[in-house]
Amino acid sequence: NTIDYFPETNTYVTASFDSTARIYDGTGRLIDKLSHGDVVISAWYSPDGKHILTASRDSTARIWNPKESKVTILRHDHEVTSATFSHDGKFVLTSSLDSIVRVWDLNGKALHTYAHKGDVIAASYSPDDQRIASISSDHVMTLWNVEGDTLHKYRHPERIYSVSFSKDGNT
Question: How far is CA 68 from CA 33, 73, 160, in A?
């Protein structure tokens, strides 16, 4: 589970096994509780701090706008294993045990779908948001362009647990 800090508002968001994401102020006072139907895997602020993105075992990722009491639900067929905002905050990337990676707009429209052969463990944007790396239970890391073309597949001898790009995006 995760904790994320947004310095401009001095608030934290946490993801928990009790099926909630919770927002706290800098003193530790609970501000809000965001509920899912199962364990919340992760919770992240958008780059501008206006939205919170959660991923859950309930087969959804959700984009929350706490100030407007609005939530947008992004559905998969199985547990959502990761969810992240693009660096510009305009898109969301999700991965799931349904073997799918998706790019969504903030209104919940699926823009691109990328399929793996195994359960997808995680996915990540490159720093320029032009490439996506995803890893699956079949020991494969796939590098895609945002249009959905496979650029390269890397096979590992063992299971892969995380994926990210270097700050310059070259590795």
Answer: 14, 15, 38
- Nearest 5°: CA angle at 130, between 55 and 54? 10
Entry pTM:
0.93
In sequence order, the β-bridge partners of residue 22 are 14, 33
18: which 2 tokens? 């009790």
Contact 82, 122 (CB under 8 A): yes
- Give me 74's structure tokens: 């992004």
Q: Are strands 91-96 and 80-85 parallel, antiparallel or unpaired?
A: antiparallel
Tokens (6 digits) for 86 = 């693009």
Q: What span, in angstroms and rounded, lies between the C-alpha atoms of 158 and 17?
A: 27
The per-residue pLDDT string of the chain (171 residues; one tens digit each, 9 = 90 and over) reads 789 999 999 999 999 999 999 999 999 999 999 999 999 999 999 999 999 999 999 999 999 998 888 999 999 999 999 999 999 999 999 999 999 999 999 999 999 999 999 999 999 999 999 999 999 999 999 999 988 899 999 999 998 999 999 888 776
Give the span between the Cα atoms of 80 and 69, in whole angstroms. 23
